[in-house]
Design a protein that fits this description.
Arc Repressor Mutant, subunit A, globular, Catabolite gene activator, 8 strands, HTH_CRP, Jelly Rolls, 2 domains, WH_DNA-bd_sf, 3-stranded antiparallel sheet, alpha+beta, 5-stranded antiparallel sheet, Env_Response_Regulators, transcription regulation
Length: about 210
């Protein structure tokens, strides 16, 4: 939204391609973070299970997002739960090598400072959206961001927890989208986007 996240070419020299399948946990609880990832495609859910039994979804990361980048600058002793929702293709980077590059290359350091600042602003903006915009607008924006080649299949429960609304409300708006010819439900794929332009119009109603 605020930052053109074009990865620095010098970084690609120390990265390698990786693929993670659906339902895989990239980071393990109580383990040290040794790698971070630049997502090319797919979606990862980041969440916390609280002691009272409730769950908070912190974020979803998808194409052109980073996962684990904060460990370049601080010790993330409390690893958040994570799960691959859609098969992920990414670049994997060794934390130590990338930290060394940050120390030696000011452009790379500035790149990550800009990315992390953008992430903070984006999350703050999302909190404001939750208070000021309709669920139809927010859900249209979400679907556009996390659809894969015209297919949307994020679990309704995850979306309701992320947007802090009831499962029933999410289901109601999705049903409206289907009735209005925007989406079509597919038993195997999830939802097929029939009218991308209408979704974009709903997104622009901010």
């Amino acid at each position: 939204m605020f930052f053109n996240n074009e990865i620095q070419s010098v970084m690609l020299e120390i990265g390698k391609k990786r693929t993670f399948k659906k339902n895989y946990n990239i980071y393990k609880i109580n383990s040290k973070i040794t790698n971070c990832y630049f997502i090319l495609s797919g979606t990862v859910k980041i969440y916390i299970d609280h002691k009272n039994g409730r769950r908070s979804i912190i974020d979803f990361v998808g194409g052109s997002d980073w996962l684990g980048e904060l460990s370049l600058f601080c010790n993330e002793s409390d690893i958040k739960e994570n799960k691959v929702l859609q098969d992920v293709e990414c670049f994997e980077f060794d934390i130590d090598k990338l930290q060394k590059l940050c120390r030696e290359n000011a452009k790379v350091s500035f790149y990550f400072a800009s990315y992390i600042s953008n992430k903070l602003l984006t999350r703050s903006y999302r909190m404001s959206e939750n208070l000021n915009y309709s669920l139809e607008t927010r859900l249209a924006t979400f679907i556009l961001q996390y659809q894969q080649k015209g297919i949307y299949n994020i679990n309704h429960t995850d979306v309701s927890e992320y947007m802090n609304v009831s499962y029933r409300h999410i289901l109601y708006v999705i049903k409206q989208f289907c009735e209005n010819g925007i989406l079509s439900k597919d038993k195997e794929k999830g939802y097929i986007i029939l009218d991308m332009e209408k979704l974009k119009q709903l997104r622009e109603e901010k």
